[in-house]
Structures are given as C-alpha cells and as structure tokens.
Design a protein that fits this description.
Elements: E1 5-11, E2 14-21, H1 24-35, E3 42-48, E4 53-60
Antiparallel strand pairs: 1-2, 1-3, 3-4
Length: about 60
C-alpha cells in the first residue's frame, strides 16, 4: 500500500530521518519532534507522492 506523503529530514545535505503516512499534519508534527535536540542546519520536507511536489517544509537554523 502506497502512502500519500513521504517525509525527509536532513542535517546539512545528509538525510538523517525518513517517514511516510497519509495524514499531513501528523507527519509534520513527527518531523518537528525528530528535529528537536539536533544541532546544526536541520531542515525537512514532505512530498505528496501522487504529484511529487513539496507540500510542507521547515528549517531549523542553529543559533548564532
């Protein structure tokens, strides 16, 4: 069974986490929770698997 959304979390350019699901908001909340406590340029995106377009993303920049 194919899920509607795929999530990817990156540290700089390296993918550090991945997930999938059918509920966009639940997946976004999961991504933010996974990024918590990680240091560096952490960012992520959720892709709609039917259109292959990014539907939601976040950026967590390190403090200066």
């Amino acid at each position: 069974m194919k899920h509607r959304y795929t999530a990817r979390i990156f540290l700089e350019k390296d993918e550090i986490e991945g997930g999938y699901g059918d509920d966009l908001e639940d997946l976004y909340t999961w991504m933010l929770a996974q990024a918590e406590g990680k240091f560096g340029n952490v960012h992520g995106e959720i892709i709609d698997t039917t259109t292959n377009k990014v539907v939601k993303k976040f950026v967590k920049a390190p403090p200066d």
